[in-house]
Description:
Chain A is mainly alpha-helical. Chain A contains 6 helices and 4 strands; from the N terminus they run βαβααααβαβ.
Amino acid sequence: xxxxxxxxxxxxxxxxxxxxxxxxxxxxxxxxxxxxxxxxxxxxxxxxxxxxxxxxxxxxxxxxxxxxxxxxxxxxxxxxxxxxxxxxxxxxxxxxxxxxxxxxxxxxxxxxxxxxxxxxxxxxxxxxxxxxxxxxxxxxxxxxxxxxxxxxxxxxx
Amino acid sequence: xxxxxxxxxxxxxxxxxxxxxxxxxxxxxxxxxxxxxxxxxxxxxxxxxxxxxxxxxxxxxxxxxxxxxxxxxxxxxxxxxxxxxxxxxxxxxxxxxxxxxxxxxxxxxxxxxxxxxxxxxxxxxxxxxxxxxxxxxxxxxxxxxxxxxxxxxxxxx
Amino acid sequence: xxxxxxxxxxxxxxxxxxxxxxxxxxxxxxxxxxxxxxxxxxxxxxxxxxxxxxxxxxxxxxxxxxxxxxxxxxxxxxxxxxxxxxxxxxxxxxxxxxxxxxxxxxxxxxxxxxxxxxxxxxxxxxxxxxxxxxxxxxxxxxxxxxxxxxxxxxxxxxxxxxxxxxxxxxxxxxxxxxxxxxxxxxxxxxxxxxxxxxxxxxxxxxxxxxxxxxxxxxxxxxxxxxxxxxxxxxxxxxxxxxxxxxxxxxxxxxxxxxxxxxxxxxxxxxxxxxxxxxxxxxxxxxxxxxxxxxxxxxxxxxxxxxxxxxxxxxxxxxxxxxxxxxxxxxxxxxxxxxxxxxxxxxxxxxxxxxxxxxxxxxxxxxxxxxxxxxxxxxxxxxxxxxxxxxxxxxxxx
Amino acid sequence: xxxxxxxxxxxxxxxxxxxxxxxxxxxxxxxxxxxxxxxxxxxxxxxxxxxxxxxxxxxxxxxxxxxxxxxxxxxxxxxxxxxxxxxxxxxxxxxxxxxxxxxxxxxxxxxxxxxxxxxxxxxxxxxxxxxxxxxxxxxxxxxxxxxxxxxxxxxxxxxxxxxxxxxxxxxxxxxxxxxxxxxxxxxxxxxxxxxxxxxxxxxxxxxxxxxxxxxxxxxxxxxxxxxxxxxxxxxxxxxxxxxxxxxxxxxxxxxxxxxxxxxxxxxxxxxxxxxxxxxxxxxxxxxxxxxxxxxxxxxxxxxxxxxxxxxxxxxxxxxxxxxxxxxxxxxxxxxxxxxxxxxxxxxxxxxxxxxxxxxxxxxxxxxxxxxxxxxxxxxxxxxxxxxxxxxxxxxxx
Lengths: 157, 157, 397, 397
Ligand SMILES: [Ca+2]
Ligand SMILES: [Ca+2]
Ligand SMILES: [Ca+2]
Ligand SMILES: [Ca+2]
Ligand SMILES: [Ca+2]
Ligand SMILES: [Ca+2]
Ligand SMILES: [Co+2]
Ligand SMILES: [Co+2]
């Protein structure tokens, strides 16, 4: 590992990278150890999420998080985690980095697993007694996964 | 006088033009009627100019107005109305439009003639008993009149 | 500011003290001393020219404010009026404590201070930035040019070519995407194809000469010319070189395009050719029949604008507008057409064509293919209706 | 802001809470809500980037404030930092009560409201403006690029061609000069040759998209590209077409050039080709030996900049710098040269050549011909001395 052409910057250590790299891949790559149950997730949600997203995830200041399956091809599509999102791993990634909106990056990994589990459960994608961890999250089959296509534009005119 | 190509704007009346056109030509063109004496000019100067330009026009917050003749080709040129200005008419024009700096366009034409006369007198360009009016102002021969030349650049390199 | 009408009326209602032949009062007393504004601000008479914010926002942490396009001339957006869109508020970042981490499929993972970033060779370019939801496809459509396409601005950016910074770390085989992350409360994350990163992507630290404004990513942002604005990640703190995109919430849940059959277009990056007449435009009024210049802006994420056509007869015929030189790649282009208004109702509109030959479509053409559930990348023609009294309104509203 | 040195030192003295591997505090709480600044301002960390005002001014009504060139990138000057020079303070003018009178040797003397002016066909151009006393020829010379040539800025101007407005009134035979007057307390007055008025003179109402700032002539100014800044009369209220110049105080007592033999050059309008390195420049410090880009600005009142050469060995040898495209007529041109600093003392400088083939002179060459009583139009090369500790200072001071 010689220097770059300009010799600018310093090496990033593995610990520094680990501290900052919170990206989760679509296949669950980089999901942390730990786990969380649907039931613990309900507690987290009620305390830290429901104020903005509604008691049952029906939405408020924050997006609606539940429902909408089967509506995407109608005149009134309802896009939620359950109806629209192609990857469950994105749920962990986004909650950990950005939610709760008033205190991002404040939840433990366990709580992120738990509240993700609860949101998936409310969407019928995880049983009520389930516990979520890296492997299980990566395997969840999101209903809308296969409707995503690339960019065919120019499509008009 | 038909319309211009775009038909934009309205005619300016002679009265409007007369109200706004305060430009005096180098040859005294457009100097207003009226006159003012050196002695009245001294009173105006003491009251309204000396605070900034010094009791004898030696300068202060405002420029030095007197002296400097014969210094222009030395290492310490002193540029004043008397030593540097090519046209006396400019004195009337400038004082009327811009002085006193705290209340521009507040002097009567008579006072502008008078205070111009006094400044010229302090520079040895008008006798102490003189009265200045359009014709006399236009005829004053400023010492530095003939040193002005056009722009020969590029002169360097 | 920016009104086309009413100044004669205004002046008449004022007293005439300041009108010829009188000398206006502001010539008779000194004005404000030099340096009374060490950092200048607009005239108090322009106080209405501000960012255009919808009145009914549910909350302001994840929201947008629009450039008042109908009040602006030329192609440069002054920094104070540059559009805003962010998802976790505007962070206040101390540049001395800001770091950019570059890691992933690179030979040398690196950390840069802002001074490091500024030591790299720099480049400056005038580029537009446009939010892809500008506007969506559903009625009611906005009243003014700003309401319609005000999530659009243009500035001269200075920074370092991303390619140069990537070479400093050394790309490894298999590097196909770069995942960019912002240092805001949303930790905004987007995946960018490596081709764009090696083409014209910049890490920008200056905007119209001075350092970035906080709302535009101070102290460092990614800049992807011609791509949807959200991807030009602000407050940039991390670049991860990867084999695959990360499928972040912002590139799956949002910024994807839902088709009528329920399929979803993802990774729809380019902003296609677009234009709008800003003068006369919605909310303005022609004060009198006679000569009025028609003026507007055109742009394309695919490169230069090749031509702009303007119709003053509701689309029946089109005339080629004049383009203000220099016409720059992925910058706004100002177009103009002289026009004599006969005082009768009229519908005027503009249509851009870019270097690829692509022609800006009508809203009807877009809706026919995409339906109105499609949310982003609406590059429709927006015609303006001019009433007999000179009032201008949105003909599609 | 703009420092070349010290950020590593700064960061080290700070606690490391916000540095990797820690998550910075500004990611853990929402930032300022969207719209908290309806008209944006720079980051509080840029509060030192303001107009540069000499500390010892006798008074502030007729004075100047300089653009902090060493803190800026690219070619556009943000409006808040545009240089100021005025002679009776900055008037606050209600645009509805402002009038432009056009009279003298014309077929139809006319009065225009601001709305009238805006109805004419418009044009936009990026042009520099420079005060001709920037700086004078006497020691002590300034410390920073701003101290030396900060009476210089560049913006995108929009307005109407003066030629178009003159045609509206109809020029009469014998029209050789136009006398322009400002609506400020100085009633600033300058005479402009008719050739310039018919070439590229503009009546400008917008600057970088928005309306002119009060300090730059709101609501209307004359703009004479490439001519000394004082002639681009601000707060323009009157244009008198004449056979002769008016010999105003500002074109006789001031803005004339005194030669060593006592003769005086008058009507010296053009700003000749010039350049300066802004980075690294006086007051900055190179933090470390190694790569540093040399970057600066070049301009010419006579047209485009053709080339800029840079010397890093006290003028012994010169290398051609790269010019940032687009190179525009009578606009600033950004130049850059990659440089490896070996950590030894060095003198660096830039030299512009314009389309006419004119080459920017040294201060010694200027002084040899003009002497140091000559006050205006100093377009000398300004070399910077770099000390072994990286500190940069004015080599001519
Ligand atoms: Ca993978
Ligand atoms: Ca004459
Ligand atoms: Ca009044
Ligand atoms: Ca509003
Ligand atoms: Ca701290
Ligand atoms: Ca100072
Ligand atoms: Co817990
Ligand atoms: Co009296």
